[in-house]
Amino acid sequence: MINPLEKPTEGGLYKQITWAVVFPIHYLCRKTMPDCRAEQYRNWYPFTFFMSMMWISFYSYFMVWMITVIGTTLGIPDTVMGLTFVAAGVSVPDALSSIAVIKEGYGDMAVSNAVGSNVFDILICLGLPWFIKTAIIKPGSDVPVISKGLTYSTLSLLSTVVFLVVATHLNGWKLDRKYGIILMAWYLIFITFASMYELNVFGYLNPPECSSDY
Fold this sequence. Notes:
There is one protein chain. The protein is mainly α. The chain is 70% helix and 0% strand. The protein is built from 7 helices and no strands. The chain has helices at 12-32, 45-74, 78-103, 107-123, 127-137, 149-170, 177-198. The termini are far apart.
């Protein structure tokens, strides 16, 4: 088993630089999350799971903050940054887990993971923060959404779900190379039109945001 805390002796200078960059992350994770595969920490899995969720929350907050600053600096709306960079960044773990189960021959699990992840993102990752904001932090308040383009993006998302079911049915309910290419092409079409909506290409749908203290 490769130990990420040990300096690599192969791979050249690039490998050593990438190891040094991510070394603090690996070190903190190793020191705060017990390895449940070891006999002495076999019963520590609830604590390891809790700490992993804490680290994911921290890194997610840090990533969103960086994306927001970059988008503001470049004049790119938050909705566009969310549709592209943030969505891609938070979906990488889902993609890797799907690849892992597909290699084991569990294609249905990969599809369920993708669909279930999006359901969780929409219902919990939106509902829970809004509930905390409007019910606990500022009771009775609301969270304004400044984008008329989200209506078109939501309809496009619905069409994507319909396309997924139809394409899967027409492909005989199996996953192959052709099916993967079709899905990736549909994603490029969806993300292009959604970004164009948010960039006001099809009309004045996304007005500039008001000043905020946050």
